[in-house]
Design a protein that fits this description.
Layout lengths: L5 H25 L8 H6 L7 E5 L4 E5 L7 E7 L13 H17 L5 E5 L13 E6 L1 H7 L2 H6 L5 H7 L5
Antiparallel strand pairs: 1-2, 2-3, 3-5, 4-5
This protein binds zinc ion (ZN) (2 copies).
């Protein structure tokens, strides 16, 4: 019989954890498309069939439905400009606040009473390297899914507390 010491068992567990983590977020981490292949640029440039739910020609902000919704309502709100992520210098607080404002306006207009989750990704964990706000309204069922370990692993990249650090007094 092969004997495994406690330290070997711990080491194996750590590797299993690392492996499952990489599998769960790997596609997000490594999928950094160059700008000409960016799927959100394609949506913004109308070369994609995704229907826009919101469009403002002054602020150049658009919104559309998430193709992989995690809540009853799950919109993505993004600037036309290909800004890499939340920490890019082009992601000004004015822009961050405007993205949040559009999200709340859309949910307000629909009279949505569910719990709102308004979140950015923390680099390097993101699905698309084009700044976008996840604008979600979640039912109680959604909430139990969101508190599951699966979801926490999948979305440990979300950055809601850091919004306050970068841009205080956000909505
Ligand atoms: Zn882009
Ligand atoms: Zn995302």
């Amino acid at each position: 019989m092969v004997k495994i010491t406690l330290s070997q068992a711990i080491l194996i567990s750590i590797w299993v954890c690392i492996f499952s983590f990489v599998c769960s977020v790997g596609s997000d981490v490594f999928d950094h498309a160059p700008q000409d292949l960016c799927e959100f640029c394609a949506i913004s440039n109308r070369t994609s069939r995704t229907r826009l739910l919101y469009e403002n020609e002054t602020t150049n902000i658009i919104a559309f439905r998430s193709k992989d919704p995690d809540c009853k309502k799950h919109y993505l709100i993004t600037p036309h400009l290909h800004i890499k992520n939340y920490f890019s210098p082009e992601a000004t607080c004015d822009l961050i606040h405007e993205l949040q404002r559009v999200c709340n306006e859309m949910l307000d207009e629909e009279g949505i009473k569910y719990k709102r989750r308004i979140l950015f990704h923390i680099p390097p964990f993101y699905s698309v390297t084009h700044l976008h706000l996840h604008c979600m309204a979640c039912t109680n069922d959604d909430e139990s899914f969101l508190s599951s370990q699966y979801y926490i692993n999948k979305f440990m990249d979300f950055a809601s507390p850091d919004i306050e650090d970068k841009c205080p007094h956000t909505v």
